[in-house]
Amino acid sequence: xxxxxxIQIVAFPQQGMYTYxxxxxxxxxxxxxxxxxxxxxxxxxxxxxxGEQSIHDIVNxxxxxxxxxxxxxxxxxxxxxxxxxxxxxxxxxxxxGTKTTAxxxxxxxxxxxxxxxxxxxxFKKSQMNFIACPTENAYLQGRQDTYPKRRGLTxxxxxxxxxxxxxxxQDSINDPWYPMGNGNMMNILDNGIHLAQIMSPEDIETxxxxxxxxxxxxxxxxxxxxxxxxxxxxxxxxxxVSPFDVIRTRAKVLASIRKGEYLFKQKPTAFDVxxxxxxxx
Length: 281
Known about the structure:
Blueprint: E1 10-11, H1 23-32, E2 37-40, H2 48-65, E3 68-73, H3 83-93, E4 100-104, H4 113-126, E5 129-132, H5 134-140, H6 156-161, E6 166-168, H7 185-195, H8 201-206, H9 213-219, E7 235-238, H10 243-248, E8 253-258, E9 261-265
Parallel strand pairs: 1-2, 2-3, 3-4, 4-5, 5-6
Antiparallel strand pairs: 7-8, 8-9
């Protein structure tokens, strides 16, 4: 598929490194075999101490093999799950924050404000990236809540306000965690801006960054991504005339271009009888 898509492979211990013997060694073996990213899921480990040890292992392995880091971090409603704090501290000390992404961090949305405000300053110092998965987080979290029921989303709005890089993503496509995933990032953006309550005129001008340039920084491809001279012609064409227009109408993709060649192309929707509102673009 390399002529169609670039893939980063994550050495990800789905059930945790320490839920069985040799789990950590399997992650290292995957890195030796060529995996691009070190993954982890500390809140799945059988005890807090094992979760902390896995964070140390993740950072040490990333440094050893010069790999990116992407951790399923604190994907739980438990406000006492604070592995993001340790991850941030370690990459801050190693100046590795720009190569590190904390995905989900749902518990940070449940944390008290005193803790959250202190961590915001540390996140800015480390320059660590964050990813929220709006549909999955909303579907999976808050299950033990009656009412009021939590949204499950991390503090996306506050990250944006503090200049901390955050992107939206979909981490499940038709699987047990989220059976309705289809990879449509305009749908993800639609859900995300509702859940994060970011729809002011100023927000709308930059909302598309959440599924484009911000994600490129998480993947560490920002130097080759974007509409600049000398970069590969990799882009999509969306059926609309402005950010507001394409977000409001949940616009469809008309074409996908990779290295200057069409992967696919379709015509805008046509009508036998068009609704004429007298609007001129």
